[in-house]
Amino acid sequence: MTATPARRARAANDELVLAELRRSGALSRAELGRRTGLPKTTLFSTVAALLDSGVLLEREAVDNGSRSRGRPASQVVLNPAAGLYAGLDIGRARMRAVIVNASHEVVASGACGVPSCVRADVVVPAAVDLIRSAGAEAGISLAALAGLGAGFAGVPGVEIDAEEIEQVRRELNDVFDAPVALGNNSRAAALAEATWGAGRAVEDLVYVRWSTGIGGGFVVGGLAVAGAHGGAGEIGHVSVDPAGKRCHCGGRGCLEGFAGGAALLEQCVRRGLEVDGLDGLVAAAQNLSPVVMEVVGAAARRLGGVLAGTVAQLDPSRIVVGGELAQLGSLILDPVRQAVAQLALPLARRRVEVVQADLGVNAAALGAVALLLRQGTVSD
């Protein structure tokens, strides 16, 4: 049967609504209308038909206290049974995985060590084992896997070889027989925070991932910025000392070499305190270790100085700090805020917030799912 213009229009409206819910998760009808641009009557009839067909479900919104009166508006969400998506965060020493349903609810997760984030023969077996074990532990069949996203640590063309990355894509596609989207893990985390986390309410934000290294991502006008060569947001490779030591990126005196987690651990050792990894560093800071407090505070102030320049250039309304070091909350956020306040342009200073990320250690893995959905490589 040939589709009539009316049927084609309905199908287009359906896909517009479904695509936005894939990207953003649960939304009220008002939010959905603003994001899709559909007229109110068209939107309501489209949503009603999708609810009747079981493709969408309706639920009560969580009341977060932001409304002054009345009940929170109900939300519509994709039926969780519509499919599963996997996201991978492939870091320099650790890999994390999440499996989410069509409603963007995490139904399984896991983590493992990985000795290299740029070699396909190392990454692919570890990723396959991690996803399968996470699914098995949660009792989930991966037969419903509709797509997979992965974020890698590193500077494109410097730490990440394009041929190796393409090999990872091909092999993961072969194993799971599903579309695969790849990108940078810090920019994936920025996208996740902008979509579901601490940046959801703003259009312009800077995200910082403070971990073993320091990465970042920019969201401008609601869109994640990759840059001409895929390297936008590499905050950790801003030079803070041109006469400093050579960085693995090829530059000198990069911020990461002074304030990255690996550098902080080295600084503690030089001061006579050996700390057991980033988790130990965070624990020592939370226990108010004088040495760790001094090392971390100085690093936060240096990070704030770099972010002040970023604020002057991009004029974001919010800076979101994630990664393991973000668990320290005000211990690192306050020095960053002070540095931004002292060094950024006065106009930008009045409008920028510095906040802790919402999504925790799984932000980049969730962002890899967001990357997959925004690329439009999956379909129902």
UniProtKB/TrEMBL annotation:
<dbReference type="InterPro" id="IPR000600">
    <property type="entry name" value="ROK"/>
</dbReference>
<protein>
    <submittedName>
        <fullName>ROK family transcriptional regulator</fullName>
    </submittedName>
</protein>
<dbReference type="Pfam" id="PF00480">
    <property type="entry name" value="ROK"/>
</dbReference>
<comment type="similarity">
    <text>Belongs to the ROK (NagC/XylR) family.</text>
</comment>
<dbReference type="InterPro" id="IPR036390">
    <property type="entry name" value="WH_DNA-bd_sf"/>
</dbReference>
<dbReference type="InterPro" id="IPR036388">
    <property type="entry name" value="WH-like_DNA-bd_sf"/>
</dbReference>
<dbReference type="InterPro" id="IPR043129">
    <property type="entry name" value="ATPase_NBD"/>
</dbReference>
